[in-house]
Every structure is written in C-alpha cells, then in structure tokens.
Amino acid sequence: MSNGYWNKPAVSPASTGGFPGGYGFYQPTPTPLPTPVPTPFVAGASAGMPPQVPSGSFVTPAGGNVVTVPATEESYVENILRLNRGKMGTFYMTYENNREWNAKVFRGIIEAAGRDHIIISDPSTGMRYLLLTLNLDYVTFDGPINYEYTFNGQTITNTVPMTTNGR
C-alpha cells in the first residue's frame, strides 16, 4: 500500500512491534491506592458528597466557601421588570428578517422576568405571552417605575431625591 509520499509503503507502529528506535508500547505498572482515612460524621451531610455551595460561589482548595454574589441585585432590565411585577407595561419588540411583522407591540401585566425572557398577561383576553429579551427594544409604563440600584455604596431608588454637587 502506498501513502503517496516517495512511494514507500505505509507502516503502522502496531504492525512492527513498537515505534522506530526500539521504543515499545507503554505498559503501566499498577500503583497501590492509599488507605482511606475515616472522616468524622457531620449531621445533615451525606458521605462522599461535596458541600452545598450557593449559586455564584466557589469552593477554595482548602474547602472554604467564597461567595461572589453581590449583596443587592444589579441594574439590569430583568431586575427592573421584577421590581415592577404586577404593573401594566407596553413592550416594543423587533424581529429581524420577518416579512409579516418586523416590529410588534405587546401590552400586558408583568408576571415574571428572567435573564432572557419576560412573561406578561393581557387582562382583556387572558392570553399570556413569553417574550425574549433578545427582541426587546424598550418598555413604557403609564405610571412611576419602581427602580433601585447600588452606586458608590448607596442604594438609589425612585424615591431617593436627586441631589446636585454644584460641580
């Protein structure tokens, strides 16, 4: 059989008993496993199970738990919509490459909001809509918007008066 290079026959190391230069196949030698050390019983923990860690946290090599979740929610659309759950809103959506409707408007009461979706219900029809935030352009509300975020260690809300520094 030819491999196309200089018309030499193709040779597999397996068919020659090893690699050129006298290197044979690797034969691992069994290594004894260390004797297991009994661990003390901890109430509520199951044997062989890792400790439960909150979402967003990690366990250090020493077994410590480091929590990296912010103390308050950050200012994202999903969090603002959650703060306004139960309010009527108008959602302006854009759907690219759609010949029937490129832009569509939905009006409904906010029931839930997640990282990538919004669930609203139309009170006049009872229809519920699952909208993707990927298509969301903006939202309007008829009344005030509940809003809060942390800035420079202070929680800013829609009820905190705006101040000026005179700068």
CATH class categorisation of the domain at 77-149: Mainly Beta
Range of strand content: 25-35%
* Class per helix and strand makeup: mainly beta
Largest sheet: 5 strands, antiparallel
- Outline type: extended
Number of helices: 2
| CATH overall fold name of the domain at 77-149 | SH3 type barrels
State the total count of DSSP E strands: 9
Would you mind describing this structure in some detail?
This protein has a domain at 77-149: SH3 type barrels, CATH 2.30.30. With 167 residues, the protein is mainly beta. It is extended. The strands form three sheets. A five-stranded antiparallel beta sheet has the order 6-5-4-3-7. It has helices at residues 13-16, 77-83; strands spanning 57-59, 65-67, 88-94, 103-113, 117-121, 128-132, 136-141, 148-151, 154-157. The chain starts with 12 loop residues before the first helix and ends in a 10-residue tail after the last strand. This is Spore coat protein GerQ.
Short description:
The protein is mainly beta. The chain is built from two helices and nine strands.
Which helices and strands occur, and which strands form pairs?
Blueprint: H1 13-16, E1 57-59, E2 65-67, H2 77-83, E3 88-94, E4 103-113, E5 117-121, E6 128-132, E7 136-141, E8 148-151, E9 154-157
Antiparallel strand pairs: 1-2, 3-4, 3-7, 4-5, 5-6, 8-9
Organism: Paenibacillus montanisoli
Keywords: Capsid protein, Virion
Protein name: Spore coat protein GerQ
